[in-house]
């Protein structure tokens, strides 16, 4: 492979079995990598210590192999790189761009409901009102020292001030590219490290895309809005910004996106029913 060859990645979370939506994304990444003369890596996004299970990692690998997909070694498992994420988080904290938040989800919902604005982020969650942003430093230090559970939130106002000029990224569709202006402010002060681990989806995915030299990110439209936040984090951490393509989602007969949480039919279910990998590929447009 030439030194400047594109590098893509398929990055499932082992909190359920893969379904047709995952198959489409995996096959699309593989197809684009081949057409561009590059390669596609596999990343296991298993930062959730409760929902991520070893048997589901094995199932993911088995499902992808059944589809005829192979990936270069080593496969990156996020759970093995917590110290790297902790160091990345510390960079933001030391620059005054992140602060501890002691609010529970219930408290945030109540605060949002009581607000006249009642704003929400692009995922539909109540927009955090910044309750802990202005905590007295002595009180903050005391609560941290006591071991009180907390998340870490990005101070988006300070982050945008630090980021400077307008944020944008290149979106690609085949050979065509276009410039997309990012609007991270609509996420408010989002969580960049959870209570149980020193990272979040947003922080770890930005870190890993740079660590694995990913040049093209191909993922579902449900993550398109998150790209605004990722571009901001890349700017703050002096990381490269890949090109992005957000593909249409595979929907169920009711028009809802497939989801593990709703019990969408898995690839294992289809395999058990006698469906072949060739039939899956044909159904998803990769015959």
Automatic annotation (TrEMBL):
Coiled coil: none annotated. PROSITE patterns: AA_TRNA_LIGASE_I (PS00178). Residues 9-282 form the Glutamyl/glutaminyl-tRNA synthetase class Ib catalytic domain. It comes from the Bacteria. Keywords: Aminoacyl-tRNA synthetase, ATP-binding, Ligase, Metal-binding, Nucleotide-binding, Protein biosynthesis, Zinc. Gene3D superfamilies: HUPs. This is Glutamyl-Q tRNA(Asp) synthetase. Belongs to the class-I aminoacyl-tRNA synthetase family.
């Amino acid at each position: 492979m030439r030194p400047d060859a594109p590098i893509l990645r398929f990055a499932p979370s082992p909190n359920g079995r893969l379904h047709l939506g995952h198959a489409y994304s995996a096959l699309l990444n593989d197809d684009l990598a081949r057409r561009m003369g590059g390669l596609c890596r596999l990343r296991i996004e298993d930062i959730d210590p409760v929902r991520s299970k070893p048997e589901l990692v094995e199932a993911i690998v088995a499902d992808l192999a059944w589809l005829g997909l192979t990936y270069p070694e080593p496969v990156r498992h996020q759970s093995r790189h917590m110290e790297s994420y902790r160091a990345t988080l510390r960079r933001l904290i030391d620059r005054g761009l992140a602060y501890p938040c002691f609010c529970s989800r219930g408290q945030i919902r109540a605060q949002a409901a009581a607000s006249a604005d009642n704003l929400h982020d692009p995922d539909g969650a109540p927009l955090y009102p910044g309750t802990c942003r202005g905590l007295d430093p002595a009180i903050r230090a005391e609560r941290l020292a006591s071991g009180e559970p907390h998340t870490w939130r990005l101070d988006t106002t300070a982050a945008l001030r630090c980021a400077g000029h307008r944020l944008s990224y290149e979106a690609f569709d085949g050979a065509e590219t276009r410039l997309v202006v990012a609007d991270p402010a609509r996420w408010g002060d989002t969580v960049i490290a959870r209570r149980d681990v020193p990272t979040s989806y947003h922080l770890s995915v930005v870190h890993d895309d740079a660590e694995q030299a990913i040049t093209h990110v191909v993922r579902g439209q449900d993550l398109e809005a998150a790209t605004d936040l990722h571009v901001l984090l890349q700017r703050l951490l002096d990381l490269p910004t890949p090109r992005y393509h957000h593909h249409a989602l595979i929907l169920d007969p009711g028009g809802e996106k497939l989801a593990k949480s709703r019990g969408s039919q898995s690839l294992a279910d289809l395999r058990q029913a006698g469906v072949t990998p060739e039939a899956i590929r044909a159904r998803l447009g990769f015959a």
